Amino acid sequence: MTTRWAARVSPDQVWPEYPRPTLVRDDWLNLNGLWSYAITPASRQTPPTRWDGLILVPFPIEAPLSGLGRRLQPDQRLWYRRTFRIPESWTNRRIRLHFGAVDWACWVWVNGIHVGEHRGGYDPFTFDITRALQPAGENELLVAVEDPTEGGQPRGKQAHRNEGIFYTPSSGIWQTVWLEPVPQPCINRLVLRPELNGLRLRVDPSSSRDNLGVLAIAKAEGREVARVTGPAAQELWLRIPEPRLWSPDNPFLYDLEVELMHQGHPVDRVRSYFGLRTITLRTGEDGRARMALNGQTLFQLGTLDQGYWPDGIYTPPCDEAIQHELLFLKKAGFNLARKHVKVEPERWYYWCDRLGLLVWQDMPSGENHTPETRLQFEVELQRMIEARRNHPSIIVWVLFNEGWGQYDTERLTAWVKELDPDRLVSNASGWTDRHVGDIVDVHSYPDPVSPPPEPGRAAVLGEFGGLGLAIPGHTWSTQFWGYVMLPDPPALAARYQRLLQQVWQLHRVSGLSAAVYTQTTDVETECNGLLTYDRAVSKLDPALLNRLNRDPSAPWPGQFLSPPAFLEPVPWRYRLTPPPEGWFQPDYNDADWAEGPAGFGTYGTPGAFVQTPWSGPDIWLRRTFQCPDPVPDNLHLLIHHDEDATVWINGVVATRLEGYTTDYIAVPLTPEARAALRPDPNVLAVHCHQTRGGQYIDVALWVPEETTANHRTPQPGPARP
């Protein structure tokens, strides 16, 4: 399987774009293209004398676009070789060799001289190779790589056996390799910290010599708007008059020009850019914390973005492919991507910055069982933050996913916040929260839920959905799966619409700040993407997705005589111990019962809107309501029950339901219950019995619109096994 862009990939035009858009110099030399390769036993420490063939860099050896498409075994070493010439114009400058990323451990030689080594599969690294270069003629570059894949290091979803939610490994060089001449001293790093009215800027030079200064100029659409001068290695304040803020709806970026000065003369120049934005928590009148962009609450709706490609594995086939996928998300009405246990090439974040897509960045998961693997995890965590922190699109660091390799959560959460105090930190996405950090995050498939509220922490749904639809001719394997398999696009659209209606209800009722749908694309055997794995087919039209994603309207149009919890937290009388006989009769005195808002149950129950916790085996409920005269002909109960429920109206059984549902269902009243209705105050009484698993009860009285009455009456759910 290949994408449409694979045919355009050629050895002389493979990832030609400048790979570091947040720190740009004019002079550079791209080393992507065909390299010689050889595979030897890992025990071999000397370069091979014979080469096996050619490999196309920067695609990993497992990728078809590398020209090989084969696995590197844990006991093997992958060798690369190529030659290059240094341009004459680079004379008298230091020469740096850059690697965007190599998975996992690598050793590098230039002209037989060892210039450095690196461990870490997701972060960029650099060697000064000046001392090893020939002043004229060709230079030889050798790279040796070992990748144990499942050796305990951060690896995300790479696995020896790609099945289920784990996929093909990505070994060797998988991002751009390039050369760059720099003066001495030079600018090593920019640290950009945006605020709403300006930029905090630090320029870290390669030398600690005294009298190094900085000139920084901000431009808007080519026009200078601000400048600042000051010492290097110290934070400077660049105030922006009439600031234009960065947001998904208006992703405005300022250009930044920086000069390093020595004794009043510029010695180095770089270009960058920045967006003015803040990401904070804001507590509403209901006491719940929500995420706020630029001081305003913004509901974030995005997709789980795994970053796998059928032809490039970890490496997108080209820059245009990245743009295409991100533009699809924007057109479909999403404002967020959760980059899932993978760190992308920097140009992916560049396009998120340009197009206006918020990013939650996961730390790639590892096993972290030993002191050595934990140290490596923390080294790579810090590198990830330092390498990507200048991108305004990134607003959240996600430390752990579903408990994979989770340890020392409290310490590491505090450390990440110390490394980057300007972003929010999620200590654990999905089920293993340790009550620290800015976010409490749960996962639920397929139906959405909201985590229990916590003071000072935003509630988010880090994963939900996973609706599967296989498109013939566009599946990676004949064995595929999704969390729920659907037969055709109309069925997918209907189920997706209901999930999004629930999400918007959770946002309104439970204070949910964000939701992440699984997922952007199919990945290998998973067919629960909105796009097929080859990116050839959008299973739902982006315009339809946009409408569904942006429609917070109620899913049950009509009139409510007694509203459901997702519209209004109406008060009910309730008790958790058996009441006296006749408790469901209209003349029963419930003055000594407790009172609480609907719904009742445990947080995390699919489709639930819990306002009053209930965790015992039984609950009894009562409330009064008014009924118009005459009684509407098509009056229904709207009920979400987990598990067995009986409903009475004025002492008459309206329905008895067994098993459980994961959503609200419409149930016609019994003729006897309908006959018991009266214009005076009526009494709605409910008993719900729970055995195990999630639990929830909420009951409403609904008069549907004529156009919806016939197709919004699903059957009650099954008994819990």
CATH class of the largest domain: Alpha Beta
Total individual domains: 4
> How does the helix and strand content classify structurally?
mainly beta
Given the structure, what is the number of helices?
7
Shape-level CATH architecture of the largest domain: Alpha-Beta Barrel
Number of strands: 44
Describe the biggest sheet?
A: 8 strands, parallel
- CATH topology of the largest domain, by name, is TIM Barrel
Radius of gyration from CA coordinates:
30 Å
Percentage of helical residues? 10-25%
Question: Could you say which overall geometry the principal axes of the C-alpha atoms support?
Answer: elongated
Distance between the termini: 40 Å
GO molecular function: hydrolase activity, hydrolyzing O-glycosyl compounds
Keywords: Glycosidase, Hydrolase
Protein name: Glycoside hydrolase family 2
Family: Belongs to the glycosyl hydrolase 2 family.
Overview of this protein structure:
It is a single chain. This protein is mostly beta strands and 721 residues long. The protein folds into 4 domains: 6-182, Galactose-binding domain-like (Jelly Rolls, Sandwich); 196-274, Immunoglobulin-like; 279-549, TIM Barrel; 558-704, Jelly Rolls, CATH 2.60.120.260. 12% of the residues lie in helices and 35% in strands. The strands form 10 sheets. An 8-stranded parallel sheet has the order 27-26-25-24-23-32-29-28, covered by helices on one side. α1 (319-331) runs parallel beside α2 and α5 packs parallel to α6. The model is unreliable at 707-721 (pLDDT under 50).
